[in-house]
Amino acid sequence: MVxxxxxxxxxxxxxxxxxxxxxxxxxxVAVPREENRRIYSIKNxxxxxxxxxxxxxxxxxxxxxNGLPVTCLMKLKYNCDxxxxxESKSLKLYLNSFNMSRFGKSRGECLDICKKIIQExxxxxxxxxxxxxxLKNSVRRVEIFEKYKNLVDLVDESEIVVDKFKxxxxxxxxxxxDSDREYYLTFDSLRSNCRVTHQPDFGDVFIYYKSKRxxxxxxxxxxxxxxxxxxxxxxxxxxxxxxxxxxxxxxNDKLSVCAxxxxxxxxxxxxxxxxKNFEPSEFDELLDVNVLARCGIKQ
Length: 299
Description:
Layout: H1 4-9, E1 30-32, H2 34-39, E2 49-63, E3 69-79, E4 84-86, H3 88-96, H4 107-126, E5 130-135, E6 141-143, E7 149-150, E8 174-193, E9 200-215, H5 217-225, H6 234-246, E10 254-261, E11 267-275, H7 284-287, E12 292-294
Parallel strand pairs: 6-12, 7-8
Antiparallel strand pairs: 1-4, 2-3, 2-11, 3-5, 8-9, 9-10, 10-11
């Protein structure tokens, strides 16, 4: 049975699509978040987290009125509390529609016009405020999440057997401690698959939590590896991981999850979610649309 989300997202997918020779906002496709959230008891009107979806488009290109090409990296973000997300191929086709379009008498004026257009188009489509910026080669580049430790380095890999490759929350094992402890953990081999194209997506997931309840690292490795045959959008995977861990912790415990995916089709997506009882400072640079915040060689 084909879901409503798949019907919406497959407007262009699996088809030969000629690039638009002129700017065309009708190419944008919005996908409702609610369908996947409902499966994990996440309510749009009562989210258990705050968060943002951060996008980087590395191949944005346009021309000035006299045909001079202008090419740069575009960064955008929008809050996860809205009803929709943008389907990534539709965003790529939309941004490509700027390639042969001409705006402004100078490069600066051209980008200012494009920024205004893109912010307005995406905000209208998503029914929320979208922030956009264009990053030059001189942009401040920041390495983030340096304190996080690789989960695989914390376990005896010779004793771990991974044999489940559909999301398996039963693999998460909890033990109770006498006092709160903080955990900064990363897993650099997250793989899921686009729910429409079934093409693989790779990323690094970063998990912080503070709790008396310790989620054993071996089980967490096996759980994150179980996404390997899942078919979901990036944002959905991040929320699924958050919700599974959130449900195992106590009410006032702190939790944050960030997934930095590698680029596909010139675009990457970096969803971040955190529990409402704190605001993690390690997301500051990632959420700043004027900063290029990366981690590791894959991003």
